[in-house]
Amino acid sequence: MKKTLIIANWKMNLDTHEASTLLHRYHETIQIHRDIEIAVAPSTLSLQPLSVELDRRKFRLCAQDAYFKDEGPYTGEVSFAMLQGLVHYSLIGHSARRVYFGETLETVRDKVTAAVRNGITPVICIGETKQERDDGETKQVIHDQLTTALSNITSDDIEEIVIAYEPVWAISTFEGEVAKPDDMQKAFDYIRFQVKELYGARASEAVRVLYGGSVNEHDVRAYLALSGCNGVLVGAASLNYAKFSAIVDSAYRLHHQVE
Ligand code: 13P
Fold first, then answer.
1. Which of 8, 10, 69, 175 is the most buried (most CB within 10 A)?
2. What's the pTM?
């Protein structure tokens, strides 16, 4: 059975001191289980200091983004090459990158390629906006985002890739519209169908697919219970160690069929 992957995306919320404090709380409260893998995605600035403090038997580090060129006159950027050996994973193509920073399908493709070239496992974030959903374009968007992002990925590399389905309309909407797990099943099935079309049945079973979007300690179990859901990408709730710890606990209980 595949491990459940739970990623805490702290986004641009904590300075290094605050990130370090939260990591300490994680160490104190989160129970580690063999069948659950936890990755923490602080800001790029905090990756290095946290790497020294992090208990690698418990947590892995995840970058939130990096640049696709390995080196050169790209002022302000940090490359995947520079993150080699520091992080295990990197988010790529998060909707914040696509929406606020104009990342195109091709930018995401180049970043996925660069991550793999540098031995970092990409967590490719895909998902439709509210408008696209209302226009009935969800499948088309998933298709375009996925096929472009994977264009340079060989069948040798595909099984390591992680895909996070994060419908943009369901991100940070704790008070508003929240994705219903039943509705999500179609998207999950379609993602695996796409991987199967591109790489065959074995790859489509091997690839890990996560859900992200307003996940909290109450509904995480319903998302993880979806067929083919291998984990969750958690934003706001991961900033609260008690909530995040409860999310991990919930995943464990589901694995072991405890109510
Ligand atoms: P929220 O959990 O705050 O909705 O964020 C989801 C997300 O974007 C994780 O990458």
1. 8
2. 0.97
